[in-house]
């Protein structure tokens, strides 16, 4: 990477909640800060909300009232970010980088108005929206960007093949120091608080969502529990801007049919909701296996967090997981087959689950660091700045 002077960088994320894209934003900001750059993170937030994880970087919260309805909520957050950027004199930043469609549209509008020269957009994954306005916003957020990044080769190829966008891959990272044996001291307190018994315990992070394939995981867990009656499924997190109520109601109805109580603590299925960020390392260490059998992911940070916690992980045999994982680092399963998931979970619960925690996992975690991700970002930022300068001089 070419040496560059310290940059003023604005990173935009869609909320203050613990979602993968927000984690990416905060950890990238921290890594860029450590490398000597001046980073400001912009995020919409309601009154009383704060960023879920502390950061050494400056955080600007664009206050929103909390308009109901997805279209209204997205529109409010776009407008709030535009206002916050205007108040902070957006043009003074060397790099403006949006991690999602909300920030991408705020920057696209400022670009159209001539308030900023251009921006970078990272596509973590794309969603399907029946609403035409949401679909237009999603498309504009990457279409109007000067540089498009993706967190996996899968999505880089998708942007190229489906949309003709010459995106570049910049992978996620993992702060392994947050996880591991250091979290063991908090395990018992967390067990008692959530009503987690002796187990075995299967953990899934991300709440109850169709994209996360939670209902199929429930079917698989029912099969697993028939063989391991004391098993518990813990569904953690789930703070999302999207409406998953209908899917959650179907999930709960099916859990009742399967006679899997979800009513509180000490139950076969425990739904924690959003947890304090400080509790997550201990929760991974409480788990005997971690499941991420999603139908669609940008990268899957939970996988790296689980492996850094020395916990076997079951993942869908689909990209992007198949890009960076193999049989030495995970147990693969067919996300459309409950028996396949149950079988993979059963194997994962046997010792180390056949995963090579002595060699393959450490090598994998060494490949994905936030410092490496930050250096890759800086190289791309530098090239864009050079290109913009040449255009300005032409």
Automatic annotation (TrEMBL):
Domain (Glycosyltransferase subfamily 4-like N-terminal): give its ranges: 19-178
Record GO terms (molecular function)? glycosyltransferase activity
InterPro entries for the chain: Glyco_trans_1, Glyco_trans_4-like_N, GlycosylTfrase_MSMEG0565, Glycosyltransferase_grp1
Instruction: Show the SUPFAM superfamilies listed in the entry.
Output: UDP-Glycosyltransferase/glycogen phosphorylase
Keyword entries, A-Z:
Plasmid, Transferase
Residues crossing the lipid bilayer are none
User: What protein am I looking at?
Assistant: Putative glycosyl transferases group 1
Please name the source species: Caballeronia insecticola
Q: Which residues form the Glycosyl transferase family domain?
A: 187-351
The reply on keyword Transferase is yes
